[in-house]
Amino acid sequence: MTINQSGWKPEIAVSGAVLASPTATGNRALMLEEPLIFEIGGMERTGVDLAEAPAAPNRLGGMERATPIGLPGLSEQETVRHYTRLSRQNYAIDLGLFPLGSCTMKHNPRLNEKVARMPGFADLHPLAPQSAVQGALAVVHELGEWLKTLTGMAAVAMSPKAGAHGELCGLLAIRAALEARGDARSVILVPESAHGTNPATAAFCGYAVEDIPATLEGRVDLAALEARLGPDVAAVMITNPNTCGLFERDMKRIADAVHAAGALVYCDGANFNAIVGRVRPGDLGIDAMHINLHKTFSTPHGGGGPGSGPVVLSEALAPFAPLPIVEKDADGVFHLVEEETAGADHGQNFGRMVAFHGQMGMFTRALAYILSHGADGLRQVAEDAVLNANYILRSLEDVLDAPFGGTGPCMHEALFSDKGLAEGFSTLDVAKGLIDEGYHPMTMYFPLVVHGAMLIEPTETESKAALDQFIMALRSVAERAKAGDEALKGAPWFAPRRRLDETLAARKPKLVWEEVGGLAEPAAAE
Amino acid sequence: MRYLPLTDTDRRAMLDTIGAASIDDLFVDVPAEAQLSAKIAGLPDHASELAVERHMAALARQNMAAGDGPFFLGAGAYRHHIPASVDHLIQRGEFLTAYTPYQPEIAQGTLQMLFEFQTQVARLLGCDVANASMYDGSTACWEAVAMAARITKRKKAALSGALHPHYAQVVKTMSKVTDYTIADSLPSIQPKPDNAGLIARIDGETSCVVVQYPDILGRLPDLEEIGAAARAQGALLVVVVTEPVALGAIRSPGEMGADIVVGEGQSLGVGLQFGGPYLGLFGCKQKYVRQMPGRLCGETVDAEGKRGFVLTLSTREQHIRREKATSNICTNSGLCALAFSIHMTLLGEKGLRELAALNHALAVRAADKLAAVPGVRVLNDSFFNEFTVILPGDAREAVRTLADRGILAGVSLGRLFPGEQALANGLVVAVTETTTDEDVDALCAGLKEVLA
């Protein structure tokens, strides 16, 4: 077994010449290659010590496993080393600015991690008697009250597991409300610039999806929207601030037109960070909006989740909120409204969309974040997020094309296009060049309405010095892309991997490891 | 504000660079009537770390944690010991504070972990392939039903009566809007699962049969019999596993013919957390891979020929396919998948088999002790680490009374199936490696008093 599975050897340029300079391991000092657990683990090796099972008859009813599973084990030290080495191949917000537009990669305070791990929250069963979980129900309720107040909405559904699940919740509530008035409708309108989850969610709910065009200013085309509204339209899904980083100025007029046509307004709240504390979506006529706790309220993204997507609802949709619901009695006791207790007050609920109560581990973190900021701090969050984004927009618009830069300020994210890059150079090259400069790239090729889009969201937790350094780095990469620097097309040169062959991965999918010769204890010596 | 690095001097300098007189100039696109002129009234201002920690700790203390006394709750969420290194490793900032690995050159840590996770899950479930995770077991269950409908082009699902009722509720919520027909029932209160009743609900229109294994009462249904009946009608077998530790002791669903296997991975590495975040496991046969929901990580090479990993087959997904995607899922349970994978690596084959044997032996001994309590009857013929006891009266009352005495006795069927009188006396009792002899004795003594 070799550590360096593919036999790659580093090269070193000496006096301009490239020399093959193999290290025996394929490692480059602190940049360490790491095999798969299936290549280093063994069926007999383990990192746990368990009590011996007491003698007892077998009651498995003839279902005993007869074949090995094929799970390699490692000792604790080997395990710690394996995952620590893997971790060092990742970029992360803890390492530096992470400007992924629409993803709100802000600092993740460690107090929130500590709070979520308090045994009273972390070691709590979801089906424990309600008398035993009053503090947990209080957290759900307290966070829900904050979310309602911050958005100016009537009700909140806490159980959705992530943003897309929140979209599903909102559309299910809209559908239930329409059906309750005997007015089933079949179409959801979605702007071209929307996140892919919006049309996917609408389709998942059984609706036909139609695009609404954008204006040349990057906003929803109100006239086109009004022309399309009719008795078949159930709802409009709008992202505000939108994915071009712009506030939908006509939001209230859009909502009024949608309501006049008998439809409802769903708002994708992915970008709530830009307006928290300064604008209440409830004042704009919105009927449902999900809030990504893992964006605006800083619960960690964890390399792809978990998220959490509570949905705030208008008076019109409140009766249709899903179960369970946490309520506070007049005497201060919290209780769960579930199927048997929904009764008259919540009799129109659309049902249950997840097994238990939602992402409790995210609720504790988000509540700690909100309490840390308070009403004054949250307003400052929005202002600093918008300030940082505009600073980037104005500091780079001389070198990168800002398609909407001339129309006014942006909100929380700055949008550039690939216009002006040298022939044959693309947004991808700029992104990969940024990797060599030590940054995670911006969101690329989204939104779809801008050619070669580069969407940069710095968030409020970056200092001016950090922004200045990022601006310097991106300016340099952009200038190289405009000058046609061929070296950029090979970037990244210094990352743990060079550009990866995604076509090969998709054409011949290899999704699980397959052993050659079976798993066994590796030989003691190599 | 300790998380906000800009000073007023910075802000002034930045506004000058932008060419704005004040921050309000940057919000000009927001209509004035929609803007709040000051912070929202009636809410507290920012607070110190100490103050927030105190507030949260006070709320945490109002809960009775699993470790606070004898504890026997399961029914879809299980308390297992999590090795200390798991939580240490998932708090590495490079894992905790990374995003979905869209830039694979600087996300190989997450991607290699996901490839290892997918392999571990596929092997555990007995499937050819597994994805990079779903939200939880209940949403994975619905996704399996929807996937079976896409594959078979049929819209009728037969659910076992002994499927977790919350999972069945989730399926029904979604079925209302997708025009699926759901054929289900209540669980039979019998020592063996009601395979015949389930098979009778399968017909030529059925897309899939959904069976939980072990089931909500802890019993172990024979999946081969159900799978054969499904295949005979052109339907798929979907198996739901809410306790993955069981698969260290019992045959995998895949080897018994399951087409799609979904599960709740919370038992390994994740913890109870009052119901979330949890970890949806999703595996299937190779031939169905392009109909799978969620992210998939695959192996490839980089420009120099080095092995590397990327997210792949994304033409199934919402960010590419939009309304034609197989699912709307985007963010999944990445960090929970990491915790699961680390715990599984620490266990290995040997550790998982031993852990499963220990759970089963302790559960058998506990069942025998409970059966000796006057008035208590153990229902199950077969079980892994969870079984159902029938009390002489309403089990919900007994659970409440025992909770007041510091004993969390189990999950009553009245809580799971409210209003069903025929089930009201049932209590589902889970026993894991965290359960001590003293805990079991306390439960037996408590029940004896309550039932006296």
TrEMBL record, chain A:
<feature type="domain" description="Glycine dehydrogenase C-terminal">
    <location>
        <begin position="383"/>
        <end position="482"/>
    </location>
</feature>
<feature type="domain" description="Aminotransferase class V">
    <location>
        <begin position="186"/>
        <end position="302"/>
    </location>
</feature>
<comment type="function">
    <text>The glycine cleavage system catalyzes the degradation of glycine. The P protein binds the alpha-amino group of glycine through its pyridoxal phosphate cofactor; CO(2) is released and the remaining methylamine moiety is then transferred to the lipoamide cofactor of the H protein.</text>
</comment>
<dbReference type="GO" id="GO:0005829">
    <property type="term" value="C:cytosol"/>
</dbReference>
<dbReference type="Pfam" id="PF21478">
    <property type="entry name" value="GcvP2_C"/>
</dbReference>
<dbReference type="GO" id="GO:0016594">
    <property type="term" value="F:glycine binding"/>
</dbReference>
<dbReference type="InterPro" id="IPR015424">
    <property type="entry name" value="PyrdxlP-dep_Trfase"/>
</dbReference>
<dbReference type="InterPro" id="IPR000192">
    <property type="entry name" value="Aminotrans_V_dom"/>
</dbReference>
<dbReference type="InterPro" id="IPR049316">
    <property type="entry name" value="GDC-P_C"/>
</dbReference>
<dbReference type="GO" id="GO:0004375">
    <property type="term" value="F:glycine dehydrogenase (decarboxylating) activity"/>
</dbReference>
<dbReference type="GO" id="GO:0019464">
    <property type="term" value="P:glycine decarboxylation via glycine cleavage system"/>
</dbReference>
<keyword id="KW-0560">Oxidoreductase</keyword>
<dbReference type="InterPro" id="IPR015421">
    <property type="entry name" value="PyrdxlP-dep_Trfase_major"/>
</dbReference>
<dbReference type="InterPro" id="IPR015422">
    <property type="entry name" value="PyrdxlP-dep_Trfase_small"/>
</dbReference>
<keyword id="KW-0663">Pyridoxal phosphate</keyword>
<dbReference type="InterPro" id="IPR020581">
    <property type="entry name" value="GDC_P"/>
</dbReference>
<dbReference type="GO" id="GO:0005960">
    <property type="term" value="C:glycine cleavage complex"/>
</dbReference>
<dbReference type="GO" id="GO:0030170">
    <property type="term" value="F:pyridoxal phosphate binding"/>
</dbReference>
<dbReference type="Pfam" id="PF00266">
    <property type="entry name" value="Aminotran_5"/>
</dbReference>
<protein>
    <recommendedName>
        <fullName>glycine dehydrogenase (aminomethyl-transferring)</fullName>
        <ecNumber>1.4.4.2</ecNumber>
    </recommendedName>
</protein>
TrEMBL record, chain B:
<protein>
    <recommendedName>
        <fullName>Probable glycine dehydrogenase (decarboxylating) subunit 1</fullName>
        <ecNumber>1.4.4.2</ecNumber>
    </recommendedName>
</protein>
<dbReference type="InterPro" id="IPR049315">
    <property type="entry name" value="GDC-P_N"/>
</dbReference>
<dbReference type="InterPro" id="IPR015422">
    <property type="entry name" value="PyrdxlP-dep_Trfase_small"/>
</dbReference>
<dbReference type="InterPro" id="IPR015424">
    <property type="entry name" value="PyrdxlP-dep_Trfase"/>
</dbReference>
<dbReference type="GO" id="GO:0004375">
    <property type="term" value="F:glycine dehydrogenase (decarboxylating) activity"/>
</dbReference>
<dbReference type="Pfam" id="PF02347">
    <property type="entry name" value="GDC-P"/>
</dbReference>
<comment type="function">
    <text>The glycine cleavage system catalyzes the degradation of glycine. The P protein binds the alpha-amino group of glycine through its pyridoxal phosphate cofactor; CO(2) is released and the remaining methylamine moiety is then transferred to the lipoamide cofactor of the H protein.</text>
</comment>
<dbReference type="InterPro" id="IPR020581">
    <property type="entry name" value="GDC_P"/>
</dbReference>
<feature type="domain" description="Glycine cleavage system P-protein N-terminal">
    <location>
        <begin position="1"/>
        <end position="444"/>
    </location>
</feature>
<dbReference type="GO" id="GO:0019464">
    <property type="term" value="P:glycine decarboxylation via glycine cleavage system"/>
</dbReference>
<comment type="similarity">
    <text>Belongs to the GcvP family. N-terminal subunit subfamily.</text>
</comment>
<keyword id="KW-0560">Oxidoreductase</keyword>
<dbReference type="GO" id="GO:0009116">
    <property type="term" value="P:nucleoside metabolic process"/>
</dbReference>
<comment type="subunit">
    <text>The glycine cleavage system is composed of four proteins: P, T, L and H. In this organism, the P 'protein' is a heterodimer of two subunits.</text>
</comment>
<dbReference type="InterPro" id="IPR023010">
    <property type="entry name" value="GcvPA"/>
</dbReference>
<dbReference type="InterPro" id="IPR015421">
    <property type="entry name" value="PyrdxlP-dep_Trfase_major"/>
</dbReference>
